[in-house]
Amino acid sequence: MIDWPVFLDTDQQIAFWTILVGIVCNSCCALLGCFLVLRRMSMLGDAISHAVLPGLAMAFIFTGALNALPMFIGAAIFAMLTAGLSRLLSSIGQTSEESGLGIVFTSLFALGILLIQVFAENVHLDRDAVLEGAIEYVTLETTMLLGLQWPTSLGVTGGVLICVLVWMVLFWKQIKAASFDPAYASAIGLHGHAMLAVLVILVALCVVAAFKIVGTVLVVAMLVVPAASAQLICHQLARMLAVSVLFAIAATISGYYAAWHLNSSAAGMMAVMAGVGYFGALLFSPSQGLLFTQYHRRKMKYRIFAEDILGILYRYEESSQKSNDVHELRGMKLSKLKELIGEKYNAKSMKRLLNEKLVTASEDQEYLLTALGKRNGQRIIRGHRLWESFLDREFKLPEDHLHEAAHQMEHYLDQESRSSIEKQLGSPTSDPHGKNIPPQPEDE
């Protein structure tokens, strides 16, 4: 049993080393998991954790004992063999990466079962240790270094983590290219396929190193879940790697203390907390979270409603000024406005238009554009009629097909797009229906 740091009592020492080993192991899994998620190879860890079974069986057959080192070597050989054979099948066997992986790992797993039944039938395999690991007992197996006792598993997983970090530092440019397009990376001399091969080898080493500590469940969870959580939040690879490690650390610490209070498996609870982290990212991600997506959809829905109202009122005032030579323009009745806007009419959104001083309403519920609303409406109608002219000239659409297509597009044309279309069309003054194209507003 490790008895340091000395300023901690026994329970605190166990917690400290368990959490530290978990952080090192899970951070290594999270870093490699980012590349697996980007390459759509997320289940490689699960496949390797099954395919190492014949390596474990052969290690017992040749040594006659369940010693850690032979077991590790046997598992590592078959882990890398799994990765290599799956890559070989996908490259020369005309199969997808997922299919090649499935063929190899199921075959090797079946071979492992057969070897155990024939040569090691009396060997006891602890189901709980295989599925859930034994991270709570990392302080029982120690190594003496610098006059102090250290968890043996810390050295193993720490060594794999160092290898991963060194690989990332030395070959960062090549890794980035290979993560998104290995064929292109190889074509321009960045060794894309070689980087993928190294990634697979590192994943195999990581899985084997972590297998005994945290078990199959947590290895697969940490290879996939923190990386998937980070992908929901980040759009840059470097940030994704950093955020995935933060998710792994948070899941390790919170999972350990939750397991402590609930008297349950620490590794299993860490996997659960990783899932909680993913659920949080799925809800609250600023770019892809469900809540923010719903917020942006509501915001866009209001913007489209507002622009439709401004467009309707602009056309109404435009036609009224042509047909009536009057100084005072009467507004559009609310009933007529509702009829034109249809099911999209929303009283709350209409109230916002009034509060934002884009529209005014008389006591008789007649609506007119303010100066600001007229400028906004002018932009919308300008984009609408320019797009109708573009469709008519470039695609020769029938006149009765132009309005609806332009009505959909007018909400997505910015000032630069409108100017570009106008320049391409030679600054037309009217649309295909003969209506005037408004000039560019002065404040653009």
Spell out the key features of this protein.
ABC transporter involved in vitamin B12 uptake, BtuC, three-stranded antiparallel β-sheet, two-stranded antiparallel ribbon, 18 helices, mainly alpha, Arc Repressor Mutant, subunit A, 444 residues, 2 domains
Task: Tell the overall outline.
Answer: elongated
Q: Share of helix among residues?
A: over 70%
What gap, in angstroms, lies between the N and C termini? 74 Å
Q: Which band does the percent of strand residues land in?
A: under 5%
The CATH C-level name of the largest domain is Mainly Alpha
Q: Please give the radius of gyration in angstroms.
A: 32 Å
CATH names the topology of the largest domain as: ABC transporter involved in vitamin B12 uptake, BtuC
How many E-type strands?
5
pLDDT averaged residue by residue: 85
Name given to the CATH homologous superfamily of the largest domain:
ABC transporter involved in vitamin B12 uptake, BtuC
- Major sheet details: 3 strands, antiparallel
The domain count comes to 2
Helix and strand string, N-terminal first? HHHHHHEEHHHHHHHEHHEEHHH
